[in-house]
Amino acid sequence: MKKLHFPGLNGLRFIAALLVIIDHTELFKSYLGMPTLWANSYSAYLGAFGVSIFFVLSGFLITYLLLVEQKEGPIQIKHFYIRRILRIWPLYYLLVLLGFFVVPHLDFLQVPHYSTEMGQSLERLLLFTGLAANVAFVYFPTVAFANILWSVAVEEQFYLFWPHVIKIKQKLFWIMLLLLVGYLGLKFYAGNLDRQVELLVIRTRFSAMIIGGIGAYLVFTKHAVIRYVYARMTQVLLLLVFGLLLFDRVDFKSLELFQDEFLSLVVCGLILNIASNPNSILKLEHSVLNYFGKISYGLYVYHLFAVVIVLKFLPSVLSLKDWSPWISYPVSFGLILLLTTGISHLSYKYIESYFLRKKVKFSTVMSGDLVKEKEKKESAAAD
Length: 383
Known about the structure:
Blueprint: E1 2-4, H1 9-31, H2 40-72, H3 77-102, H4 121-129, H5 133-139, H6 150-167, H7 172-190, H8 195-203, H9 206-220, H10 226-230, H11 232-246, H12 259-276, H13 287-294, H14 296-313, H15 325-359, E2 365-367, H16 369-382
């Protein structure tokens, strides 16, 4: 079995998760009538920023793995879907169960302007169980703590057809580019149809994953353009633009509709350097970042519980409203991150790891943390 490890990707996963947690911490502070450090519009922007990073990362890694598998032999589509099920479904459906059948009955977890009545719950439940949480997000009231699964559903929808695209082989780069242009055309045209349709297309960010996939193709084929992406000046420019985007200092004006795609291109350029350029300026391979990246799926899906628990519990112990936001924020956010990490660690150890180990027999290429765990076992056996 071929082993594959890209350095730094776990670090990027953690950064993406952190941005989403910051967004929701500020949002829930406003729901609970607490002072916030930033305007809600900026914190919401950070959350969208983090999700875009997740999408590009996913498109890059999955596409590269499929290309390696195809080089070793034909892509086993059935095995691909089994791997996706084992990685994604356990936490996805756990959150669906909690959101629909547990949270509505726990008064402590009810939040003003967020928790909604569970009318039309059958329609929403069918959409969530059918991996269409993004559709439910746009057309129905919020399902507290489960609506965050919209992005997970988008990924699963994308991977229903993406392996079949990679199997085509011939003119693959141009096919991926054509799909990107097609999505952008749909995104532009959707505004002429209906506002909710437009929101659904915008939220279904296939473009970010396609851009990540194109980046993987360029690295895998050692395309000539890679030398320009690896250039030191290009790296400096990418980091500068990334910083400007992160602090919302780029005014898109009439190009706002394609803001996500521009961000995705910048993120993809950084990923190509961090993961595959030995002379990358930015190094994110570190044991702490690797740990947080390893549990990033848990950080993403569980953090809302930690946010609500901490923000509702802390005022009974500390007078946060009387504190400066610059003091109360590190205290509250630190506790949120600590609690989220604890929950995610337990989830990874007792739930996710079990299913991840099952993935091995359906994998032609072993990647990520499974590689490191296998190497540790082999090293221990040799000793």
